[in-house]
Amino acid sequence: MVFGVNRNPNTDVVGSGTKGLTALLVAQFMGAANDNILKTLLSLFVVQGIWEGKLGEGGQGYIALCLFVPFILFSGWAGPLADRFSKRTIAIQMKWLELPLATTAACGFIFDNFWLTAVAMILLATQSTFFSPAKYGMIPELVPKPLVSRTNGWLNMTTNVAVITGMLVAGIISTKMQQGADLNSTEEIKTGLLSNSSLFIPGMVLIGVAFVGIVAIVWLPKLKPLDPTTTIPINPFSSYVATLKEMWGTPLFTCAIAWALFYLLATVAILFIMELGKILTVSYMQVTYLLASIGIAVGVGSLCAGFLSKGRIRLELSEIGVIAMIIVLAIAGLAPLSYWVMLSCLVGLGLSAGFYAIPLQSLMQLLPRDAHRGRVLATSNAISFLFMAIGSLTYSLCRPLFGSSPQYVFIACSVIAIGAWMICRRIPNDCLESQK
Fold this sequence. Notes:
Blueprint: H1 11-14, H2 17-48, H3 60-84, H4 87-110, H5 114-137, H6 139-142, H7 148-181, H8 186-193, H9 201-217, H10 236-247, H11 251-279, H12 284-309, H13 315-334, H14 339-366, H15 373-398, H16 409-424
Helix pairs in contact: 2-3, 2-4, 2-5, 2-7, 2-9, 2-11, 3-5, 3-10, 3-15, 4-5, 4-9, 5-15, 7-8, 7-12, 7-14, 10-15, 11-12, 11-14, 11-15, 11-16, 12-14, 13-14, 13-16
């Protein structure tokens, strides 16, 4: 069974957990920053920039979709690998792989090749797919069980700061590239940028960030493989089927769906924010400030939830968080569309989302047995990214229906949040204790 009491056979690494956790946080920060620098640059440029109109109206939704597909396709291999081999080994190998992929993206910008850059982004997402179950799965191996919620708070905080940093850096890079071109029309920008030295900036940043992540990850302490007998399936979807059969009807499955809805809501919110530059006639940097506001708020909310948990899993924090999300999303959809109203709503949405996510994330790490944790987290990742892909595709297809009032998409999100609240209430408060 995958559902059971957490046990930590790696007792020899608990003492070195502080150093290992710091290494993980830094490496995760750099990886998340790189992913978001590249994703944000592509999203901005297909909406209003050098590749404007390349994917049509709502094209940023297709960019997001390309990020999600690798998690859906390959998590069925990533999970068993994280169980069979040392999570440290997998993490180090994935961080080394990030360097040539960042170089490929750099070439895409230098040669003004959208498709090469997009392929590099998809490959970086694939690299993240294999890094993810190792990253989240090693937390219960690095810290004692009472510190898991607090550690997840720190992980979410640093991840969201990394997301913010990546978005802000992308905003600065895109502004510099436009200034370097010193031209007015989109067609002129496309032509002018080809000979501009600013085209080298994205690649230099991406490669530099990847290198720092490599330096950090090697400081992880040694971790033992938890189930060396695990078979890696030829068909990655067979791993999902087997794991879902084990999860079905347990609090673990309910938790996975509630967790996936968090990512669905976040995806739609970010896709909408990407359009605000055109709608509100504000600059790239002002759009990145909006993205930063929700990222900072999620990080602060996550950190607060981690500390308020006080060594326990407090599902009431998730319920409080989702109720707050329902209210804030309704306000965002009904209030007059303005920069400051949107900024305030995004801060409220991020804070409440942080409270919602931490208890669920901690349960996803503690409910599975140690030897199956990688597979459970990978399957849960696949469910989450499937929801995110559906959200991205639906947004791209339905965006024209909202016309000049795209903020009404938040009303739909509020309804989805009500569904998340109903699912969250089905998770027993004592589900961990009942498995002892």
